[in-house]
Amino acid sequence: METTPAARARGITKSFGDVVALDGVDLDIPAGQVHGLVGPNGAGKTTLLGLLLGLSVADGGTLEILGAPVSRVFGVPDGVAGFVDGPGLYPSLTARQNLAALAALRGYGGSRTNVVDDALEQVGLTDVADDRLRGFSLGMRQRLGLAAALLTQPRLLVLDEPSNGLDPASKRHVHRVLSRLAADGTAVVISSHRMDDLAALCSEVTILATGRVVFTGPVAKLAAESGELDYRLVTSDADAAVRIASGTPGLEVLADDDPLRARQDDALIVRAPVPVLDELVARLVRADVAVRELGPVVPPLEAAFLALTGADDPSPTEKEAR
Amino acid sequence: MTATTAPTTTDRRPDARPAGLPSAYRFELVKLLSQWRARIVLLACWLAPGVFIAAAGQQSTLPTDTVFGRWMLATGWAGSLVVLSFCCTWALPLLTALVAGDVFAAEDRLGTWRHLVVAVRSPRRIFAGKALASTTVIALMVLGLAASSVVGGLLAVGNHPLVGLDGASLSPGHTARLVLLAWAYVVVATLAYAAVGLLGSVALGRSPMGLLVPALLALLLQLVQLLPLPAPVRLALPSQAFLAWRGLLTSPTQTGPLVIGLVVSLVWAAVATVLAYLLFVRRDFTDLTYDGSGRRALLLGALPLAAVTAVSVGAVALATPAQGSGIEKAKVERTLATAYAHLYRLQARELHRPDVTEAQLRTTASCDKGGSLVEDHGPGNDWRCVVSWRIPGAVAVGSAIYQLDVASDGRFVADGDGPKEVNGYFQVRTPTGDAPNPLWQVDGLVDLSSAPSKG
To answer: Which domain of life is it from (chain B) (predicted)?
Structure first.
């Protein structure tokens, strides 16, 4: 049985004047996968998403979308949908009018009403279907943008920061929609700075830095790339915990004057590989010290991202300032 | 790097087809008409002229400075022409600025370009849809202005004969045809400004300057028209068509300025639209920093239009016998004498005197500009004319004096300077009471494009 990836890029390059946006990018996105695309600002994510949507063509390399080579602007095959740089809908129109107009543009004709209603229902906007967009929150606009993309029943869905402005309930709703699409065979490419979203949704991620791929593969493999992490440990007896941790081989307790430690109150910050952490927990339990909380200070995905893209490990103050 | 593939078979799909032009057009129309600004302006276009004419009909003071303003109480058709004259000065350039000047820039402001191009998949059809939709809305606005002014005038004043710019009385049916033709003609002229609006909107992106381009062009051309320009230059400007429609209301019709205005407007509309199209299809929609074409707008926008103007001036100079200002003594004399003869007949009818034909009157005018030290040509308010005519069976030759204010666009207002019984007073005493004196102030229009020796 022949299998075709939803998107396949080899050696893609793209420049804007003197600025190299993409430099030899390879990418494979199989059908039915939610694929994360991450990278610092200016890494080339938007440019790559634009190529996938057919907004522009690469200067070099090859790109195949749904099995068809793409060699000209708007040369992507039917079945590709999504948005880059925000959903881009019209505030003077109602949600239904926005979608109906798009359905008409895509040639849905007589079945337009059903298609629009289905899309609105999928993203949970049926109740506000006849409200003008100018009263919508950012999260509602994001969901409507997703509904607009769903109108075409895409085989490749490209979304730029789809969780922007979503409250937790809306985010869960959107995640469910995307997961269901992937289960039905649609490839979903998500660009996001939200590592928790990517960890929750994506089976694979690609990290771009200065136009190059620095990692692509399963999320679990990426987490492993992060190496030793800092962990926050809260126990029932802080002094005993410090004593026991200090005596555990292969484990480093961050000093009191370490910036990471500064605002942790009774918490202890330790740096160690996972097996050493297991040993620490065992020792604490044997000493009748209760472990109330143990978790990475920086999530593994974010730590790997920072390590791979060469970004400095931010201090807690910097993190809070984001 | 992984390259897993899902266990599904995907046939090679054809490229996604672009949206059809009718769909793109409808979408653009819906977007334009969903804006409150467009709705309010459209509503104003369909209501304000009628209200204005109805209100003016209740006033004793009429806008006599505006062409046909002095006839607003005589016929409902005059009101529509007053509105048309006002629109040609300000309203139409502003309307085109509001609609065509914003139709592309709005997408920049809203950040919707990528969404739109992904949906339509053809910049050409986006351009065509936007151009057609904005033209439709502008046409609806002009239609509203015309319909409202005509209906308002007819309801408030009535369907009576109109005195043309040559003084001839035009039957209501003939007037209706001419008024509608004048509005239709101005629609074509408006297309040139609409195309410039499209060009400004494409070239300058979200900058407010893009929105203002048609209005700024209108202002610039009005300032230029105040200068003592040679007739070929004046006739070759795109604003000429906003004045040329008055030539429909003379007999014979002043076809020279009408044809020149039509051709110049169509050339401007075509060139500006093509330039806007070229700028638009070369745009990179993935460039997040795009904010208008800047220098390219100057090279691809302003310079070609300046070249079009230069070529138009040369063509008009070669194709017409117009020289100098186009306002010469013989033309002024002929135009005034013709208007006087027509209006004399109108006055005779008011006074229940025996009718005489223009041929029997053998009216002539002798004009002088500014005394013996000044050449007798060009615009100015220092023209003085003596009109002479003959009554069949009478030996004496009648004469009346007029002071003329001749504008550089060829329109003049002749103020009667006596004798009082003929043209020296604003009313005449008729058997049924006092009535406006048609010979007191006389409007006329000199054909700038005709040969100086023709008269």
So the answer is: Bacteria
Q: Is B287 on the interface with A (CB under 8 A)?
A: yes
Query: Where among B252, B286, B319 does a domain terminate?
Result: B319
Chain B residues whose CB is inside 8 A of the A78 CB are: 13-17
The interface predicted TM-score of the complex, written ipTM, equals 0.75
Fold of A7-223: Rossmann fold (3.40.50)
Q: Which of B1, B14, B30 sits opposite A97 (nearest CB)?
A: B30
What is the distance in angstroms between the Cα of A229 and the nearest Cα belonging to chain B?
24
For residue B165, the enclosing domain spans 21-319
Distance CA B155, CA B14 (A): 61
B78-102 pLDDT tens trace: 999 999 999 998 889 999 988 988 8
User: Ramachandran region of residue B121, left (φ > 0), alpha (ψ -120 to 50) or beta?
Assistant: left
> pLDDT-based confidence at A227, cuts 50/70/90?
low
List residues bridging with A63 in a β-sheet. Answer: A9
Mutate which of A52, A55, A85, A191 to disrupt the B interface (most B C-beta within 10 Å)? A55
Enumerate residues 6+ apart whose C-beta is below 8 A from B264. B192, B235, B236, B237, B238, B240, B241, B312
Q: Give, for B51, the enclosing helix (H) or strand (E).
A: helix B36-56
Q: Do B300 and B216 share a structural domain?
A: yes
Contact A190, A202 (CB under 8 A): yes
Residue B43 lies in a domain: yes
CB-count exposure of residue A318 (10 Å: 0-12, 13-18, 19+) = exposed
B149 within a domain of the structure (yes/no): yes
Q: How many CA atoms lie within 13 A of B439 on its CB side?
A: 29
In DSSP terms, which residues pair with A24 in a beta bridge? none
Test B122 with A85 for CB contact under 8 angstroms.
no
Average pLDDT over residues B116-144: 92
- pLDDT at position A257 is 62
Mean of the per-residue pLDDT values for chain B? 87
Find the range with the poorest average confidence among A304-308, B2-6, B386-390: B2-6
Is residue B48 within 8 Å of residue B153, measured between CB atoms? no
- Is B135 inside any structural domain? yes
Quick one: B171 and B98 in the same domain? yes
Reduced DSSP (H G I as helix, E B as strand, rest coil) percent helix, strand, coil of chain B, to 5: 55, 10, 30
Residues of A in contact with B8 (CB under 8 A): 3, 31-32, 185
pLDDT exceeds cutoff 50 at B363:
yes
Q: How confident is the model at residue A295 (pLDDT cuts 50, 70, 90)?
A: confident
Contact call for residues B107 and B186 (beta carbons, < 8 A): no
- Domain spanning A227-321, CATH class: alpha beta
Does B371 share its domain with B264? no
pLDDT of residue A3: 65
* Cα distance between residue B61 and residue B100, in whole Å: 36
A311 pLDDT more than 90 = no
